[in-house]
Design goal:
Elements: H1 2-28, H2 31-45, H3 48-56, H4 70-84, H5 88-98, H6 107-121, E1 125-129, E2 136-144, E3 150-162, E4 170-176, E5 179-189, H7 196-202, H8 214-242, H9 253-282
Parallel strand pairs: 3-5
Antiparallel strand pairs: 1-2, 2-3, 4-5
Helix pairs in contact: 2-8, 3-4, 4-6, 4-8, 6-8
Amino acid sequence: MANQQRGLATESIFKRVYTAVTAFLLLLIEKETWQALARWVLWKVIPKRRRIHKVMQELNPLAENAPPEMHALREEVFSKSCLELPKPQDIEILLNILNHVEQPMGYEQIFFAALYPILIKRDLEAIGITSETPHRLEVEVGYLGHNEDYFFWVFEIDANRKMSLNTQLQVREEQREDKRYVVYTLGGTGLVEEDFAAYAEQWLLNTPRLSLALPLLATAYADQWILNTRIYFAHILNDLKKRNYKVTAESIPDFGRARLSILRHLSLLRINRRQFRSSRRNR
């Protein structure tokens, strides 16, 4: 009887090992695996990585109740977005905006970090708005129109709010002095349906023998977040077009232009001050 039980145990171990090895080999022949591996290797060897990693350490700590996997995911999305930014000042501005969140959960920062390179490519300006509400990031996004009026709208990204690609836009109109604008209330969770554990199971990384592939998992998971966030942003742009960009100054067009210029100047001053302090510490 004992010999039979030992035989069954040995057979069970053999089946688990065989299943894991087979799954791993099947994983290797998938194109997505090699793409993730190539991105991960590239990220490890590029010189820009060291500077981005240094800036990444200045992100505000996550809230105590943030998901444990959020640390790695936030760093992965932040670093990938920084690689797309053409200027070091853009990285500093992104850091400054993300640090406007009180007790960040991570989801709200991931959402905007994934969007920021797209905003830069479209010549849009982003300005962080101070909010006392925990886990919520508020950002003003704007640009100067053909008539040099300042057009803008506001994102309210709530980390506790669930949202999917099929979620209808929640928009409200508000007014600030002589300006009308729209506010988009957005969620932070749900854009990628699988949670980290489910995604790991999909990649068959619950086997200890495959734990070395975890960096590939983080890369692929971050890529999915970035992709879905930008898809949802396309819905927002379509909504703005339908509104015919009726988010402009009512009577004082110079107000927006002057405000944008001042905020840009203050942002650059903060960046220069930060770089000066950093250079003094490194001496």
